[in-house]
Write the structure tokens for this entry.
Amino acid sequence: MRCIALQHLAFEDLGLFAPVLREAGWEIEHRQAGVAPLRPDEWQDADLVVVLGGPIAAYDTALYPFLHDEIAGLRSRLALRRPTLGLCLGAQLMAGALGARVYPSGHKEIGWAPVDLSAAGQASCLAPLAGVPVLHWHGDTFELPEGAELLASTPLTPHQAFSHGRHALALQFHPEADPARIEPWLIGHACELAQAGIDVPALRAQSAAQGNAPQASASAMLRAWLDQLA
């Protein structure tokens, strides 16, 4: 089984999800957006595609034309009901590919906090995340696509996660983020953190305080979703 992970930043990778995928027998291939894109046939044929996060916006197609191809690839893949997971920017691109509006939320949501699961979310693969802080790092949001089911929200971001059938899962937050590897995020997003007035030492300490709970919950969540695909 082949999983293609599409990265927009080197340090925003599969994180805590990688060992779970490998243990489940998935062969992981990383691609760098704008440098090593997926071909149209790969968008359609890969057993699993995970579209990861990044600091650009899903609507920044004039500045980053390769986003047109990513949205088109996602649109064709989702129409075929092929297994697809989107994280942060990846979730926004999935929403856009499904015809929903992606737009600036007017605020930054950065830091560790739990999401509020809807009734559908509590009955879904996200159930292991209940009450467990996950990493939030975004300033954009999306409308709920037609035919999607809302799974999670926060007070600042009502649309935090959705499913679209059994094959597609979009998460605005970062359950894959390893709190023990937060330093590259603090370095790579230094300008964004400064502009948002985020206290970097406080965010570092908050990350260190998470312990093993994110790993256990993220692993259980992903295993549940993979089982759902089987």
About this structure: The chain is about 35% helix and 25% strand.
